[in-house]
């Protein structure tokens, strides 16, 4: 599409830089890793994103995995509009929260009780607090390259935007806030065994069962089973961070794929259908320690917000239709099968795919940048960092998938 006002994005970005740090409200949106100004979104429909200069992109970021149904899904739009006309927030219990809680716990049986919050960061932070309250212990374990949001104790050798910081953690996080954080290598069962053989005072182990913030790295079965076994033996709670993988890897999430039951699970993204919504939940006896039943405090003005609940219900109800995940998988294979074949002969680039998630990892950052710009110029938008995961949605059309495959092949042949 030709642009009617080609300079709009640069003038908006310039103004944004003067008002918002780095011009963005979340670091990776700045496109720093690519070395170009950020895309400024105007609207989206299905698999397409349109920027304020009217450039159209096939979107594989999909709001960082939140939009499994694509942009502005008609059913989600209607549900939110209808709820909006009845009121956007009450700060009171609504039936919608009960309905979404029931839908989630039916799909993920490890979630006997759940609390809704507004971001993944809140979910992981609250899950850790309730785990510490339950075990009456402070120490917890996380894994290198896993990202659990931006609460202080998790900002130790984390993935996502934290990977690009000059230090292993963020400025502004006091040493005291991370003194109870133990960070182990991912997918190393022996280091898990070694730690748990010496320390019996660990409150929780939190893990992305499929890591999605250092590229896409599946947890190995041996690693996850060891973690489950060692935590169980020592009365440590196992927390699966399924903010990305929940309802992405099928209705049962990554825990369903592996057949491993965590004590607590953190969810976000898809469960809110693109509105600010996340949750943590798990064993009833642990969750019942939350106020007002127990002594672990956790609260939120907009928690369980009716608009977010309506969007979440409209999303999850569609995901329950027969064959949905099979069709999502098929779309991803249509996109990537030719690329898998092509890359088996190429050096310095790796394609990883799990269900509808994928990453292309380039050994050389400059080559990634060249690839990224090449795709962008052809109207294809990937997350602007090779540490982040690309997502295929149910809205991706055969036409868009074919165009993307072709563009990738053209790059590798060029
Ligand atoms: N956990 C994981 C695995 C994530 O990928 C993210 C964010 N991408 C979070 C937690 C934090 O979620 P939020 O950005 O909603 O705070």
CATH superfamily of the largest domain: Type I PLP-dependent aspartate aminotransferase-like (Major domain)
Mean pLDDT: 96
Q: Pairing-aware structural class of the strands and helices?
A: alpha/beta
At CATH level 2, the architecture of the largest domain is 3-Layer(aba) Sandwich
Which shape, going by the Cα principal axes?
A: globular
Q: What proportion strand?
A: 15-25%
Q: What is the CATH topology of the largest domain?
A: Aspartate Aminotransferase, domain 2
Tally the helices: 14
Q: What is the gyration radius calculated from CA atoms?
A: 21 Å
Gist of the model:
With about 425 residues, the protein is an alpha/beta fold. About 40% of the residues lie in helices and about 15% in strands.
Structure explained in plain terms:
The protein is an alpha/beta fold and 414 residues long. It has two domains: 7-72 and 324-413, Aspartate Aminotransferase, domain 1, CATH 3.90.1150.10; 75-319, Aspartate Aminotransferase, domain 2, CATH 3.40.640.10. It has 14 helices and 16 strands. The strands form four sheets. The chain has a seven-stranded mixed β-sheet with strand order 4-12-11-10-7-5-6, with helices on both faces. Strands 1-2-3-15 form a four-stranded mixed β-sheet. The chain has a three-stranded antiparallel β-sheet with strand order 13-14-16. Helix 9 links the parallel strand 10 and strand 11 (264-267). The structure holds 4'-deoxy-4'-aminopyridoxal-5'-phosphate. 4'-deoxy-4'-aminopyridoxal-5'-phosphate binds next to helix 5.
């Amino acid at each position: 599409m030709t642009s009617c006002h080609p300079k709009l994005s640069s003038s908006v970005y310039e103004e944004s830089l003067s008002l918002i740090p780095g011009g963005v409200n979340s670091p990776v949106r700045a496109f720093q890793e690519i070395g170009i100004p950020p895309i400024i979104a105007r609207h989206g429909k299905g698999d397409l994103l349109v920027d304020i200069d009217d450039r159209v992109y096939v979107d594989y970021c999909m709001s960082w995995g939140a939009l499994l149904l694509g942009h502005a899904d008609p059913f989600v739009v209607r549900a939110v509009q209808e709820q909006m006309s009845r009121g956007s927030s009450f700060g009171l219990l609504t039936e919608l929260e009960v309905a979404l809680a029931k839908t989630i716990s039916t799909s993920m049986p490890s979630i006997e009780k759940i609390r809704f919050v507004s971001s993944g960061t809140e979910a992981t932070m609250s899950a850790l607090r309730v785990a510490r309250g339950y075990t009456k212990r402070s120490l917890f374990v996380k894994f290198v390259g896993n990202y659990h949001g931006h609460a202080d104790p998790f900002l130790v050798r984390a993935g996502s935007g934290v990977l690009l910081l000059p230090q292993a953690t963020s400025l502004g996080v006091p040493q005291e806030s991370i003194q109870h954080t133990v960070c182990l290598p991912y997918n190393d069962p022996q280091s898990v065994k070694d730690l748990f053989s010496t320390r019996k005072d660990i409150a929780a182990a939190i893990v992305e069962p499929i890591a999605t913030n250092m590229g896409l790295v599946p947890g190995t079965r041996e690693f996850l089973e060891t973690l489950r076994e060692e935590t169980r033996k020592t009365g440590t709670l196992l927390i699966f961070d399924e903010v990305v993988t929940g309802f992405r890897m099928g209705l049962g999430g990554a825990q369903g794929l592996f057949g491993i039951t965590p004590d607590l699970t953190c969810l976000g993204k898809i469960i809110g259908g693109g509105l600010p919504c996340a949750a943590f939940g798990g064993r009833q006896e642990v969750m019942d320690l939350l106020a007002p039943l127990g002594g672990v405090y956790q609260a939120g003005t907009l928690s369980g917000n009716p608009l977010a609940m309506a969007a979440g219900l409209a999303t999850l109800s569609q995901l329950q239709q027969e064959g949905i995940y099979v069709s999502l998988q098929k779309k991803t294979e249509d996109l990537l099968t030719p690329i898998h074949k092509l890359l088996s002969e190429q050096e310095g680039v790796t394609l990883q795919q799990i269900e509808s998630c994928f990453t292309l990892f380039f050994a050389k950052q400059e080559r990634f940048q060249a690839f990224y710009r090449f795709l962008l110029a052809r109207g294809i938008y990937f997350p602007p960092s090779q540490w982040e995961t690309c997502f295929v949605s149910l809205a991706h059309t055969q036409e868009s998938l074919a165009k993307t495959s072709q563009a990738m092949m053209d790059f590798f042949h060029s």
